Amino acid sequence: MKIRFSDLLSDFLFEYETPRQVLVKNKRVGVVCRLIQLGVLVYIIGWVFIYEKGYQSTDTAISSIMTKMKGIGVTNENGTARIWDVADYVFPAQGASSFVVMTNYIMTEGQQQGTCPEPQANCTSDTDCKGGTFKRQLTGKCLTGVRKCEIQAWCPTENEPKTPDPALLMSSENFTLYIKNSIAFPEFKVSRSNLVEDVNITYLTSCIYDPKNNPLCPIFRLGDIVKLSGFQYADIAKEGGGIGIVIDWKCDLDFPVRYCKPDYSFYALYGDAQKTDSTQSSLGYNFRYAKYYMENGTEKRTLIKVFGIQIDILVWGEARKFDIIPTLTAIGSGVGIFGVATVVCDLVLLYVLPKRDLYKNMKFKHTEIQEKKPASNLDDGNTANEGAGLH
After folding, report:
1. One digit per residue, pLDDT tens: the chain, 391 residues?
2. Angle at 70 between CA 271 and CA 262, to 5 degrees
3. Euclidean distance between CA atoms 233 and 34, whole angstroms
4. Distance in angstroms (rounded) separating the CA atoms of residues 50 and 153
5. Is residue 287 classed as helix, strand or coil in its secondary structure?
6. Gap between the Cα atoms of 151 and 131, Å rounded
7. Secondary structure of 110-155 as H, E, C letters
8. With the C-alpha atoms ordered 232, 237, 239, 241, is the resulting torsion angle positive or negative?
9. What angle do CA 380, 386, 391 make, to 5 degrees?
10. Which of 22, 112, 67 is nearest to 313 (CA)?
11. What is the model's pTM?
C-alpha cells in the first residue's frame, strides 16, 4: 500500500497531461470554424468594447436642482385689471424641482363663513334638505324664495362657470424658467454644473434655450417647453397639464471633463398630444387655494381655482472611465466564447460527416486498466496509427 501511494504521488507530481490534437483537413469544417470565430471576434470588439464600452467602470450621479421663474402677467376680467408676478402664479415657492405655473383660473371673491343657498340642491320644503346628498353641510332648511337648500359653508359658494377660453394668463407663454443643476460622480471625484465652460454671465443675459442654436442655455421659455413636449400652448394653458424636463448627463471621463455636458429633453406627462380630446381623460391639472384677510373684524377669503402646468425636472447621469478589472473580465469572457467554435466543429466531425467513425477513433484513445503483467504480455496495439493526418 505504501509503494502504491508513493507511485500515485510520483505520477501526480512529475507527469504532465496534454489534450490530444488531431489535424483535420476539411474545407467545410474549416470554414465553419473560422466563421464562428469571426462572429465571436466581431461581438467582442463591436458590441462588448465599442457599443457597451465593457472596458470601463460606471458611476451614477447625485444631483441638486434650483429653479427660478421670471415674468409678469396682466389679466382684465370684468373690466378689472390685475397684475400677476412670480409670487402669484408659482406654486409652491420658487426653488423646487417640481412646481406649478398658473395659466388659467376661476376666482370667487369675498367669501366668509355663514349660511347661503346650495346652487345644486333644489327643494320645495325642508324635507327635501335632509340627508348627506351634497358634499357641503346642509342645515335642513329650504329657502323657499330661491327654492334651494340652505348650507353652512364659505359663502357665497364657489363660482363654477365654464373654464375661461382662451386662458386668462396666455401671457405666461413668454415666462422664462432658469434651471441650475449641479451633479457629482463620487467614485471618480468629479463635479459638474450645467453652467459649463461656454456659459458665462454675458451669455446668460441674452440666451434662450434652443435645441439647435443654444443647446446649453439653462434659460427656457415656457411656450418652448410646451411645444417641445408635443402640445400646443393654448390647449394646455386652458385646462392645465404636466411637463417633464429630463437633464441627461452621459460623461466619458477618458476624455477631458469639459466634454461632460448636459442634454435636455421634454415630455408630456398628462395626456397624449397626438390623441383627440375625447380620449384624453387624464389631460388637465387644477387645484384650489385661498387668500385670507380681515375686513371689519370678519375673516374673509378669496378662493381661486388654479389651472396650471406642473413641471417636474428629473436628472439622470452616468459617468464611465477605463478600468483594468472590467477590461480583463470582458477579454476573459470573450476568450471563453471562442470555445464555441471548437464545440460546434467537434459535433460536425463526430456526428454529421460521413467519416465520423474514423474521426472518433483518431480523437479518442480508449484504454483499459489491467493487472500488471510481464513486459512481453503488454498490449502494444495502441501504438499504431497515432499522429496520422486526415484528409
Report:
1. 667 777 777 777 776 666 666 777 778 778 888 888 888 888 888 888 888 888 888 899 999 999 999 999 998 887 788 899 999 899 987 778 899 999 999 998 899 998 888 888 888 888 888 765 556 778 888 888 888 888 888 988 887 778 888 899 999 999 999 999 999 999 999 999 999 888 888 899 889 999 999 999 999 999 999 999 988 899 899 989 999 999 999 999 999 999 999 999 999 887 655 554 544 555 688 999 999 999 999 999 999 999 999 999 999 999 999 989 988 888 888 888 878 887 888 788 778 777 777 777 777 665 555 555 555 444 444 444 444 344 4
2. 65
3. 60
4. 68
5. strand
6. 12
7. EEEEEEEEEEEEECCCHHHHCCCCCCCEEEEEEECCCCEEEEEEEE
8. positive
9. 145
10. 67
11. 0.73
Run of H or E including 363? helix 356-363
The residue assigned the cell 466543429 is: 345
Please give the grid coordinates belonging to residue 378.
503488454
Residue-by-residue DSSP string for 288-332: EEEEEEEETTEEEEEEEEEEEEEEEEEEEEEEEEE-HHHHHHHHH
User: How far is the C-alpha of 134 from the C-alpha of 153, rounded, in Å?
Assistant: 12
Q: How many CB atoms lie within 10 A of CB 332?
A: 10
Type of residue found at 236? I
